[in-house]
Amino acid sequence: MQTIGQRVRLARKHFGWTQHQAAEHLGVKQNMLSRYEREEHHIPDPIKVKLHALGINLTWLLTGEGEMLLPPPAHTPLQDVQQIRRELLSLQLTLEKTQADQQAMQIMLQRMKNIIFK
Fold first, then answer.
1. Which residues belong to any copy of the HTH cro/C1-type domain (predicted)?
2. Separation CA 58–CA 103 (nearest Å)
3. 40 and 80 fall within a common domain
4. Is residue 50 part of a domain?
5. Rounded to the nearest 10 degrees, what angle do helices 30-37 and 4-14 cross at?
6. How far apart are CA 104 and CA 48, in angstroms?
7. Judgement on whether residues 53 and 14 belong to the same structural domain of the protein
C-alpha cells in the first residue's frame, strides 16, 4: 500500500514536474516538498486543497482508494449558455456579411443595367 507521501510523488510525476516545479505550484519550498514525499513532515490541508484544485482526487490522496484523477467536469448550464451565445454571435456575423454581400450585388447589378441600357 502506498503512503500519502508516495501518492504526492505520483501526482507530481503525473504532471511531469520536478520537485522544484511542483513546490512552486504548491507555494512551498522544494526541500519541504521533499519532506512531504518522504513523510518527514505532515502535509498541511492547504497543500491537499491545492492538489485537489489541480484535479487530484482527495479520496485517493488521503486513502489510496479510487482513481488518482478526478473525472472531467460535466457540462454546466452556464457552459451551454456560453456555447449558444457564441453560436448566435457567429450566425449574426454571417447574416450581416450575407446582407452586405446582397447589397453589393444589387449595386453592381444596377450599375450593369445603367451601362447596358443607356
1. 8-61
2. 60
3. no
4. yes
5. 130
6. 62
7. yes
